[in-house]
């Protein structure tokens, strides 16, 4: 079945540039498409998962789609604690990067086509490249009208915010930074990307602000170009903070149906939002649905006819089906294991072994060429070296997790970065 763009994203105002890019990709599988997306992934809750599902399912239909994802690590640290940053936060961020990659791969995205970075690290690269960008960033933020921070009341309802809610300055700062990074990404990470960013994906909840920020940056010539934009689907987002304790409690894959139902009831999720959950998320990702028959639950192949049920029953049906979506996503993810983005070396013996191996020019050439295209014999031919010599070095690199070999005997990089802890 052919995937429809409208099943996974909103094309703002029928943006012709986006449609042309997708059409070109569909007609020419060699055409490379680079997708940029920033996410505040804190844990595996339904809201973040819905965005990752859309990215993976639609763009994995082309082998030449590459995902460049910025993890907003400052969001993670803020949600976990207030105060100085500790090693626990950095461990959580690295864990989340691996978890996100596993989720995307389990849904069909190609591991070698996924690149995930910390937003803070990308910002540092931007500063190192051109310190004037920092002045431009904060100057633009200062000039941004305060009234533009006001969230539309209908959006506030969907995001379970007060009707007079305004986006925070921190969120506005991230929006400015996202636009600047998307426009400059190919110069910041030339080692990872060919060409420029073709499509930028933004979350539905922040999309009105993101567009206003982007327009200001273009108008003031602070960015020379802006990639065509896609918007994620309008999924309601309840549970940002428990109403009594302030605890972050968007339903996630570690919750049972009873806990999910309790949160849904607490937020008094209305029938219109329950309909949205089914039309935009559950109907597209579940093959079996939980329905109610009297006081009993029943499994059916078709979505429930929600209009037949009172609101409390609709909320209970949502809880069980949302639980099934989260559980199925978790099970798929746990069957998938990707390699970490970096290899950490701290023991003296490991350092000596690493330095000894990388001293060999053949080893360095092998690492340079390991992109999933060559087998050992093909590498030997490419390097004009005896196959036994190349095979020996490949085995050494494999033992150190610097490379891996797939089921077709093709050789891939095992990590992007080596971190030496002295």
Q: Specify the number of helices.
A: 16
Low-pLDDT parts are: 76-82
- Net shape: globular
Number of strands: 12
Would you list the SSEs in sequence order as H and E? EHEHEHHEHHHHEHEHHEEHEHHHHEEE
User: If you compute it from the alpha carbons, what radius of gyration comes out, rounded to the nearest whole angstrom?
Assistant: 23 Å
Distance between termini? 53 Å
**CATH architecture annotation name of the largest domain:** 3-Layer(aba) Sandwich
This entry's quaternary arrangement is single chain
User: What is the count of structural domains?
Assistant: 3
Question: What is the C-level CATH assignment of the largest domain?
Answer: Alpha Beta
Mean pLDDT across all amino acids: 86
- Strand arrangement in the largest pleated sheet: 1-6-5-2-3-4
How would a textbook summarize the main sheet?
6 strands, mixed
Helix content: 40-55%
Structure write-up:
With 422 residues, the protein is of the alpha/beta class. It folds into 3 domains: 5-232, Rossmann fold (3-Layer(aba) Sandwich), CATH 3.40.50.620; 257-334, no CATH class; 342-420, Winged helix-like DNA-binding domain superfamily/Winged helix DNA-binding domain (Arc Repressor Mutant, subunit A, Orthogonal Bundle). It has 16 helices and 12 strands. The protein has helices at 16-27, 46-59, 73-80, 87-106, 119-129, 132-143, 153-158, 169-188, 207-219, 257-266, 271-285, 311-334, 348-358, 361-369, 376-383, 387-399; strands at 9-10, 33-39, 65-71, 114-118, 199-202, 229-232, 289-293, 296-300, 342-345, 403-405, 411-413, 417-420. The strands form 4 sheets. Strands 1-6-5-2-3-4 form a 6-stranded mixed beta sheet. A two-stranded antiparallel sheet has the order 7-8. A hairpin with a 2-residue loop joins β7 and β8. α6 packs antiparallel against α8 (169-188). The N and C termini lie far apart (53 Å).
